[in-house]
Each structure stands twice: as C-alpha cells, then as structure tokens.
Design goal:
- This protein is an all-alpha fold.
- It has one domain.
- Keywords: Membrane, Transmembrane, Transmembrane helix.
C-alpha cells in the first residue's frame, strides 16, 4: 500500500478509538463489550500501520 493510505488508516483508527473511549468514559456506550473490543482490536492495527509507515521511510 502507498504510504498515504497507511497514514489514512492510522488517522481513521485513532478517530474510532477516540469515539469508543469517549463513550466508555462518559457512560454513553450502547454495549460496553463492543467498545472495548474496538479499542483492543485497534492496537495491533495501529502497531502494524505505524511499523509500515516507519519501515517505508
């Protein structure tokens, strides 16, 4: 993938994480499990994406 696509994936993942963590901390979540799954799944996605961007330098 092109570098800008990896950067876009990082930004999208961070936005999704931000909204999930906001729901968790404010108590507005519809399903607490799905919010935490979103956060936990995003960690490997972020690690892979950052590694790909860093490696592509």
């Amino acid at each position: 993938m092109k570098r800008y696509l990896w950067i876009a994936l990082i930004i999208i993942t961070l936005i999704v994480d931000w909204t999930a963590l906001d729901d968790i901390t404010t108590g507005n979540e519809s399903d607490l499990l799905s919010e935490w799954v979103t956060v936990y799944v995003s960690v490997p996605v972020l690690v892979l994406s950052v590694w790909k961007v860093w490696k592509g330098r």
